[in-house]
Amino acid sequence: MIQGIKRRFRPVSIIILAAMWVLLVGQLTIGNVAAGLMLSLAVTMLLPLPAMPVDGITVRIIPLMALLAEFAADMITSSIHVAAIAVRPSPQPPAAFVVVPMRVRDDLIFSLAVTMLNLQPGGTVTDLSVADRSLTLHLLDGSSPKAIDRAVGRIEKLEKQLITIFETPPQRSRKRKGTP
């Protein structure tokens, strides 16, 4: 039982939840901070989340920073593209549904890819198959094969970046010199 309590006690989560409470209330007072700490302690102890399945996941920081910078830039350009489609006087381009296979091995990374794709304007993941590792996406602009190929290329690039950042290559058997 003590071990379960130790696992549930997460100081960083408690501090973040308390800060969110103070922001929600709107006043920084000792009483609000104390109430936030007590409330966040109660939430983390009485309503624990399961542990994240992070066994075997490594994070490569430099590629992660590159991905975040590129994601921010893509967010801006895709927002401008969607806004241009919305305000132009011509009719809306035809939409498209595409199925894209994903090669990520870990379920957590697969769900991260889905989340990142859903956050970007211009496309939405409408269905996913964990067993087949494939995504069905609704693309706002399916006006030409070039537009569809461009969207699929962005997805494949995201997939490669996530594999580079989070997944370790399969272990190769190493032979020592002098051994058959």
TrEMBL record:
The UniProt entry's GO CC annotations, sorted and at most eight, read: plasma membrane
Under InterPro entries, the record lists: Cation_antiport_E
Where are the bilayer-spanning segments?
Answer: 12-41
Places the protein is found: Cell membrane
Provide the alphabetized UniProt keywords: Cell membrane, Membrane, Transmembrane, Transmembrane helix
What does the record say about its membrane topology?
Multi-pass membrane protein
Which domain of life does the protein's organism represent? Bacteria
Tell me one GO molecular function of this protein: monoatomic cation transmembrane transporter activity
Q: One Pfam family name from the record?
A: MNHE
Q: What is its main location?
A: membrane
What NCBIfam families does the database record attribute to this sequence?
PRK08965.1-5
Q: Which family does it belong to?
A: Belongs to the CPA3 antiporters (TC 2.A.63) subunit E family.
Tell me what this protein is called: Na+/H+ antiporter subunit E
Q: Which organism is it from?
A: Corynebacterium mendelii
Its lineage opens with: Bacteria, Bacillati, Actinomycetota, Actinomycetes, Mycobacteriales
